[in-house]
Amino acid sequence: MLVACNCDYGCPCNFNALPTTGKCEGHWTWHVEEGTYGDVSLDDLNFTVTVDWPGPIHEGDGKALILVDERADEAQRQAIETLVSGEVGGPWGVLAWTWPTVDGPHLVPYELSLDGSAGA
User: Fold this and answer.
1) 69 with 104: CB under 8 angstroms?
2) pTM to 2 decimals?
3) Residues near 105 by Cβ (< 8 Å), separated by ≥ 6?
């Protein structure tokens, strides 16, 4: 997983503090080495959730952009969409309510390098 945000080092939201700039912009990109959702293999796929919140994450009202690896078939896309919706718990079950507006998922190409960087 690659994580980035617009705040100072350490992401204050992770420590119940206010965002450095008054708002939060968060970005997470996952590469699934091996994994499934139900019977659907997600091996070697990538997906991204990028969110723009007008204030602290815990106040919600964020706008999310969901990107999914263009190599994903329909079942895989649906599985990733279900996961990031928060409907089935996990980290997205904690956060998804904070982004009521969602753009996507959009299928995009990804390129991963051996140094761990990801692009979408």
Assistant:
1) no
2) 0.86
3) 47, 66, 67, 68, 77, 80, 81, 84
